[in-house]
Design a protein that fits this description.
The complex is a heterodimer of chains A (85) and B (242).
Chain A: H1 2-40, H2 64-70
Chain B: H1 7-31, H2 35-47, H3 54-68, H4 72-85, H5 90-102, H6 106-119, H7 124-137, H8 140-153, H9 158-170, H10 174-187, H11 192-204, H12 208-221, H13 226-240
Helix pairs in contact in B: 1-2, 1-3, 2-3, 3-4, 3-5, 4-5, 5-6, 5-7, 6-7, 7-8, 8-9, 9-10, 9-11, 10-11, 11-12, 12-13
Classes of the chains: A mainly alpha (85), B mainly alpha (242).
Amino acid sequence: MLMFSRLIARLALAGLLLLAAVSLRYAYVDAGVLTANVDMLAPSSQATLLGAINEDGRTGWLCRPEQAAGAKNAMSAELPLGLRR
Amino acid sequence: MPRSTSPATMHAQAVQREIVERFHLGLAALDAHRWSDAGAEFTRILALGPREPQGSTAAYDLGIAQAQSGQYDDAAHSFEHAIALDPGFLAAMANLIAVDVSRGDLGAARIVANRFVTLAPDSARALYSRGLVALQSGDLGAARDDFSKLLRNDPQYAVAHYDLGIVEARAGSYDDAQREFQAALQLSPNYARARFALGTVLLHQGDRSAARSSFERAAADANDDPALRGLAIEMRNAITAP
């Protein structure tokens, strides 16, 4: 009877240790993931350079770079569109 | 141009013809990605002492040639020269910010970005550039203001939703971040970075299953971005690890 009780106690202890180990593993994985994630979120990329301008200068309707610089809409402003990334 | 036999006038006309011809050569060199040749043409134009708007334009084009060949300090100087000659030159400001960021001078980029926004308060490029510089500098409030205004002007711009989501995530406002990433994905369903970021926020909020799905989809959508794809796969696997 005494041996049986000891066996039960040992099994229970082993089970508790196993449970603790598994929980610790989960906690370890989560902590690693969560810590890494905050730094992993990078902002979008800078816009590419606006193009060259001819000898007539930036004023007038034909100067696309200057129009893009002042545009209210992202597509007209030649900003990154993020369709793939 | 009126005809004249005055030597001074004829000289001025010859110089002007040379300036125009060198503009054509320089622009053709830029088109062909011959940055050094282009730079030489615009440098020569500046040496000829052109009137406005040709002086500021030559300095601007020279800045492009220098930036494209990785000479960021020289490029910044050229764009600054263009702006000094023409203080309202928005395209030069836009390019100067990009060059300042490339050479790691966020302080200088921010000064130009402030001026750009002052001159063109509704410019998408001005708000986007200043928002990114503020975000990279850790000024979340200023970044939030710029991306929010950009979105009021152009609510369909997925990238601004993504960047605003980054701002909210860094500020610890995960519900707001989730809403912005979802808005970005609604506008652009294959936007892998936004999908990855959504997975991150879902993980923070304890929704492991939804986070895993997001990382799975981000990996599938990031075929043209091996680094992001690898990271998404790693995250997906980390969630399922016992």
